[in-house]
Amino acid sequence: MKRIIAYLLYVLGLLLLVFYAGQYQEEFRVLAGQTFNPLPSILFSSIYPFIVGLYISLPQFINMLRKKGALKVNWVRILIVGIPTLVINSNFILYYLTPLGSNPLFGWIYHGYSLVGVSLIGAACGFTILSSITKEEIRDQYSSNKEIDFSKF
Q: For 139, which DSSP code?
């Protein structure tokens, strides 16, 4: 019964995240039209998919935290998957705010992917970052699973 309630709360949280994000996105779009400043809308479009990815990986992360052991970061996964997806996800920000926006690579990413594609990449980035943190089991030298060789005595 606890598990069913936890799943229902998780889905409810996801639905609330999507609902309120839609409202904020519309408010930022209207604000950008009134002030001619697209920056708040661009920041939201880059940060929101990352937060969704974090939320999707949250149950796995919580289950991992319940285990005993030392925290470990999978740096290879972060470097190979996390950093490139972060760059693609934050491309809108880089395109408008930095001199890198004039770089043809950023222009290609900005115009080559749809907003949905960049959003999916942002969700993958958030998921990758949080799922790259794991726990390594601490092995005890006096573990009860060791076999004792009595022939040496």
A: P
